[in-house]
Design goal:
The chain is α/β, with parallel strands linked by helices. Helix content is 41%, strand content 16%. It has an 8-stranded parallel β-barrel with strand order 2-3-4-5-6-8-11-12, surrounded by 6 helices. The protein has a 3-stranded mixed sheet with strand order 7-9-10. The protein has a two-stranded antiparallel sheet with strand order 1-13. It is globular, with a radius of gyration of 20 Å. It binds beta-D-glucopyranose. Beta-D-glucopyranose binds next to loops.
């Protein structure tokens, strides 16, 4: 047995997103979107809008010193010309309550969900140059309401996942399918990138000492076969690096959401730009297993999680080491977790990922914290089947929660070897 020790001031956190936990976000564009075939409605979600005190109890039981949540744009600005002061005050109360309990709030301004009115007024979404100004106005109000207690901000959660989902594959509102029109898709990336940079400037004007970043979903990428190195690098640039590069002077930390490894392949039969075949479970589901195989797609190894994702902790060490070397910004893991309804795999998942993170830190990477996804089981964009929670929706501790609580309490854990 060996003991791994984390720094004293390490942030031990959990993350959630407003739409996935609050419930009844009827003003969001997702609310109508959920009525489509194959989607389960979110309904009350985890009820966090009313049950925040219970969420605080969960955080305390886990001995966490940080909590990441998001502000729901459609709640705060229910119509184009009206801000809801009551909703803003509630979020400010949450931040205050967290502070009282010694829990540092990290607040995200855009976690996929946008107001339905925004897309009614601007049906082209981020292709319309009126949208950035709308977002910045909302951001200004949200920051204004929370500035006394919140100094760590995220502009966008997983901007590339949002862009590919909402504008590339048509899975999220406004449901555009622009993957085959890479130039148009690139203009969405530029708009979101530019808005992040603007929001960064705005936040620093309003709060000179705050810290601003975004959370990038970064998978460990491997070539699916010989000859696929170049396509794996291209995909890394497209999904991860280009956005970070364009924001590198506008981020005080680099937020990383890490879940899995993806094998990347190039096939002349692929209809995606660059003839890429990315081995995401979601892509395989989209095109069907047979087509995926015919395209030469390769899925991960071992038993997949309930999301169909490979468990690959070594990838976290690799990703963090490379990002630290290339950007030199402090890294915070803002999401990492496993959909595991049985609960039996969660403890090992956390232990192995924390060990991988510690290995990257030993090699010199400055990592300031680890936030587990998620505090409670929640609405997984269309379904309640995947269970990512350290607690159930009834706020009962899930298997693995006790282990994480002990690591957070002691800042150390035992590993084999
Ligand atoms: C997103 C979350 C989501 C999680 C698990 C991340 O991509 O930020 O909203 O629930 O992954 O799929």
């Amino acid at each position: 047995m060996a003991i791994i020790t984390f720094p004293k001031d390490f942030l031990w956190g959990a993350s959630t997103a407003a739409y996935q936990v609050e419930g009844s976000n009827t003003g969001s564009a997702f609310w109508d979107w959920e009525k489509r075939k194959g989607w389960e409605p979110s309904g009350d979600a985890a009820g966090s809008w009313e049950r925040f005190e219970e969420d605080v109890k969960c955080l305390k039981a886990l001995h966490l010193n940080a909590y990441r949540f998001s502000v729901e744009w459609s709640r705060v600005q229910p119509s184009p010309d009206r801000f809801d002061e009551g909703a803003l005050a509630r979020y400010a109360d949450w931040a205050r309550r967290l502070k009282e309990e010694g829990i540092r709030p990290f607040v995200c301004l855009h976690h996929f969900s946008e107001p339905a009115w925004l897309l009614r007024q601007h049906p082209e979404g981020w292709l319309d140059d009126g949208v950035p100004a709308r977002f910045l106005r909302f951001a200004e109000r949200a920051v204004g309401a929370l500035r006394e207690t919140v100094s760590d901000w995220l502009t966008f959660n997983e901007p590339m996942v949002f862009i590919v989902g909402a504008y590339g594959m048509g899975q999220f509102p406004p449901g555009r399918r622009l993957l085959l029109r890479p130039k148009v898709l690139a203009s969405v990336v530029r708009a979101v990138n530019g808005t992040h940079n603007e929001a960064y400037r705005l936040l620093h004007r309003m709060m000179p000492d705050c810290r601003v970043g975004f959370a990038q979903n970064v998978a460990a990428l491997d070539p699916a076969g010989p000859g696929d190195d170049a396509v794996a690098r291209d995909w890394d640039r497209f999904m991860h690096r280009d956005f970070i590069d364009a924001a590198r002077d506008r981020m005080d930390f680099l937020g990383v959401n890490y879940y899995t490894r993806i094998f990347v392949h190039r096939s002349p039969l692929s209809f995606l730009p660059g003839r890429v075949v990315p081995g995401y479970a979601e892509f395989e589901r989209g095109v069907g297993r047979l087509v995926f195989r015919l395209l030469g797609g390769r899925r991960g190894e071992g038993t997949p999680t309930d999301m169909g994702w490979e468990v690959h902790p070594e990838g976290l060490e690799r990703v963090v080491t490379a990002l630290w070397q290339d950007y030199g910004k402090p890294i915070i893991i803002l999401e990492n977790g496993i959909a595991d309804a049985s609960g039996i795999r969660r403890e090992a998942f956390i232990r192995d990922h924390l060990a991988a993170l510690a290995a990257a830190m030993k090699r010199g990477a400055e990592v300031q914290g680890y936030f587990h996804w998620s505090l409670v089981d929640n609405y997984e964009w269309g379904s309640y089947r995947p269970r990512f929670g350290l607690h159930t929706r009834a706020r009962k501790a899930a298997a693995g929660a006790g282990f994480y609580a002990e690591v957070a309490r002691t800042g150390a854990m035992e590993v084999d070897g």
